[in-house]
Amino acid sequence: MSFKYIKKMPTPEEVKQELPLTAEQQELKGRRDREVADIITGADDRFLVIIGPCSADNEDAVIEYINRLATVAEKVKDRVLIVPRIYTNKPRTTGEGYKGIASQPDPTKAPDMVEGLMAMRHMHIRAIRETGLTAADEMLYPENWPYVEDLLSYVAIGARSVEDQHHRLTVSGFDVASGMKNPTSGDFSVMLNSVYAAQHPHHFAFAGYEVETSGNPLAHTILRGAVSKHGNSTQNYHYEDLIRLYEMYEKMDVVNPATVVDANHSNSGKNAAQQVRIVEEVLHNRKHDDEIRSLVKGVMIESYLIAGNQKISDHQTYGQSITDPCLGWTESEKLIYEIADKV
User: Fold this and answer.
1) Considering the domain boundaries, does residue 138 fall inside one?
2) Helix axes 239-250, 188-199, angle to 10 degrees
3) Domain region containing 265
4) Total structural domains in the chain?
5) Alpha helices, DSSP H, located in the chain
6) Cα–Cα distance measured from residue 20 to residue 14, given in angstroms and rounded to the nearest whole number
7) For a FRET experiment, which of 169, 179, 307, 343 has its CA 20 to 30 Å from that of 216?
8) What CATH number is attached to the domain comprising 156?
9) C-beta atoms surrounding 339 within 10 Å
10) C-beta separation of 84 from 69 below 8 A
11) What is the pLDDT of residue 185?
12) Other beta carbons less than 10 A from residue 133's beta carbon
């Protein structure tokens, strides 16, 4: 056989029973979900800032980061809604490398999917308990949704997943804001077709069940840049890109046209320091064009305690990314205050 069956995974119900949310935490999450939803629908004119490490590899460092973030979030809450990135699954283009805490709770040791599920859930719950902030995560594997559906206030579907039918249909059953990234090719039509699919009801097989979904009206686009046929990064956060997306949205049978600009990845060429300049340009275009202002609901920023990134080792720098480079804390805090001043 091609598969070696190692051990049976616990059910979502078993994991939730072992690591449950309190009633107060459930109420807090519901409130945060509604705040994010109101920004996507336009009922709330605050700006959404989804910010945090490329991958949440170390619980203590991530929680320290989010505690700092919570202090800033309180100061800007009348203009900006902060959603921390707690990304526990890391997509790998070639399949090689660290795949996130959900697969590998200790980056220096072998994968352990069961321990990874527990570590993923424990970190999200600790963040809620200590900071009052519910988070965003990337839904790399649709089957993971039942393990975290009571924790997340925002879900991203990555550039390599957005064309996948199973991801699109699964998002149609989510009850939280869900961003569909443009594919690595940069094709806006693919991204918008994913939004259309996610916003409409479907009948399909999921997690061993025949299911029906009602559609997710909070599905929207995320612009993350693209890669040309020559392997070069190309950007899609400029004025012309945003106007083009606005016009394409108008021709689609979807509700709540909205986009979030990912300031890293191909938009920055993975040069994390460029995120500051990119966010500033997006804010400038929002200020000077009403259509762009109505479309662009927020930005996504990769940020951690220490700037840059490092290789995985037994002697890692605390609070520095082991995947893509991130903006450091000092620059990130300054940028959040700048966003609040300019929105």
Assistant:
1) yes
2) 40
3) 12-342
4) 1
5) 12-18, 23-41, 59-76, 113-131, 145-148, 165-171, 188-199, 239-250, 275-288, 290-295, 329-342
6) 10
7) 343
8) 3.20.20.70
9) 23
10) yes
11) 95
12) 21
